[in-house]
Amino acid sequence: MPATVIVGAQWGDEGKGKIVDLLARDSDLVCRYQGGPNAGHTIVVDGETYKFRHMPSGILWGKECVLGAGCVIDPDVFIEELDDAEARGLSTERVRISGNAHVIMPWHVAIDGASERRLGRLQIGTTRRGIGPAYSDKASRLGIRVQDLFDAKILRQKIEVALDEKNLWLERIYGAEPLDLDDVAGRAERWAPRLRDHIADTSLLVHEALRDGQAVLFEGAQGTLLDLDHGTYPFVTSSSPVAAAAATGIGIGPNRIDEVVGVAKAYVTRVGEGPFPTEIEGPDQERVRELGGEYGTVTGRTRRCGWLDLVGLRYAARLNGFTAVALTKLDVLSAFERIPVCTRYRLPDGTETREFPAHQSDFHHAEPVYEVVDGWQAELGDCVAADELPDAARRYVDFVERELEVPVTWVGTGREREQALAR
Ligand code: GDP
Ligand code: IMO
Ligand code: MG
Predict the structure, then answer these.
(1) Which tens digit of pLDDT belongs to each residue from 92-124?
(2) What is the pLDDT of residues 175-185, one digit of tens each?
(3) How many helices (H) and strands (E) does the chain have?
(4) Which ligand minimizes its atom distance to the CA of 21?
(5) For residue 185, how far is its CA from the centre of ligand 1 (angstroms)?
(6) 3-state class of 258 per DSSP?
(7) How far is CA 78 from CA 56, 95, 96, 300, in A?
(8) What is the rounded average pLDDT for all residues in the chain?
(9) Tell me, what's the pLDDT at 1?
(10) Any ligand 1 atom below 6 A from CB of 127
(11) Cα(21) to centroid of ligand 3, in Å?
């Protein structure tokens, strides 16, 4: 598998980090192509927990790691992650960032928070890391890019021009504190020396790796239903997590991608606001949350929990072109005697559909139609091969595979690196 995209199939937090870690051992390069520190990828190795926000999960195997032009970078977070990784004995020498990636500046973080506060009940529930404001400025062609950090004079000018406007917004529109030019400029000047050795022409680097027959992983952040174009707008992120974005976000042709692995939980979670047809009503929601440890990696927020939604998953298979699926956290469902799986939606006009509604109102009012399947009520954590899974657990996975018409090649049975079974 020379070029493989690992993409979230739901609303994020599917366990992408763990699957990337699994596949990274036999890869040469691991690349992030979109998103920023809104991501939180958790990997557990021998009882030790690693949480990455910017850093590609390939860092654990000492692989060459790339942050492409499609990412937005908060230098404070990134530098903290470099320092943390080094303090834990991981080499960061081969971590490369694109000079074309946009920088999340302090005003982006301030505006993200202020805008959410102003929206009040109508808020999106963002991670408040400045993601939306940074991508907005990029699209408006007002952004500051990583390469701009290396010319102190131009950088200060850009910051001055930007702050003139951003402080007006902060003070007049949002009633928030303005930012101080010297503070911001001083902070930004300290980034360059720490980042300098990590800047590279990442499009060229990935191109050459593929040309030389190396194995490259593209690690998606967020998930398909958070995609700016195809997700549940406006309750989405401001980038495109779908697999095709790996090509634009890195700067390679779409025909270079060989495989697309969709990562899906055996159930569903969502953080933040927005419609969620299979959200569980009653005490089972809390049970899934506790058993699955469903609290945000970045924000610590409780994740909303729902039963597996095959309508959403079939949509994700279509949007991404999955060649395989990794079904994670099957062990979390071990506690349940009977497990509902949503196979269709009932729409407001009474009709039923297997396709994801194209119109937002249909989706907002969609009622899940469930098939209830038998649980297995047995621990899965000690299974070392897929054929050791209890019959009912195997039937659950077969059912998903049949409905998606995509092979499920990995099943997650616990948090540890080894707890993922190949099928
Ligand atoms: P990501 O953002 O897609 O990388 O996912 P997160 O790391 O935010 O959330 C997934 C959580 O589930 C992490 O705490 C993982 O350690 C954990 N996890 C991943 N796979 C499994 C699994 O198969 N079983 C269990 N119990 N936990 C898992
Ligand atoms: P990983 O990579 C889950 C959600 C936020 C919010 C919406 C917009 O760990 O799967 P943003 O800060 O991006 O403007 O927030 O998107 N969101 C995530 N949910 N996992 C993530 O990343 C997410 N990144 C953003 O909760 O609803
Ligand atoms: Mg996450």
Answers:
(1) 999 999 999 999 999 999 999 999 999 999 999
(2) 999 999 999 99
(3) 13, 19
(4) 1
(5) 38
(6) coil
(7) 11, 11, 11, 19
(8) 97
(9) 61
(10) no
(11) 14
Q: Which residue has the tokens 């971590």?
A: 95
User: 5 is written with which tokens?
Assistant: 């995209």
Neighbouring CB atoms inside 10 A of 342's CB total 22
Give the amino acid at 85. Answer: A
Contact 232, 276 (CB under 8 A): no
Q: What is the DSSP string of 178-213?
A: PPPHHHHHHHHHTHHHHHGGGEE-HHHHHHHHHHTT
Supply 59's token pair.
């860092």
The pTM of this model reads 0.97
Three-state DSSP class for residue 261: strand
Q: Which of 117, 242, 236, 92 is nearest to 175 (CA)?
A: 117
Ligand 2 pocket: which of 54, 57, 226, 299 to mutate (most atoms <8 Å of CB)? 226
Q: Give catalytic residue positions.
A: 13, 41
* Residue 402 burial (C-beta neighbours within 10 Å; 0-12, 13-18, 19+): exposed
Q: How far is it, in rounded angstroms, from Cα 13 to Cα 1?
A: 24
Query: Is the CB of residue 348 less than 8 Å from the CB of residue 385?
Result: no
- C-alpha 42 – ligand 1 centre gap (Å): 6
Q: What are the two backbone dihedrals, phi and then psi, of residue 406, each rounded to the nearest 5 degrees?
A: -135, 135
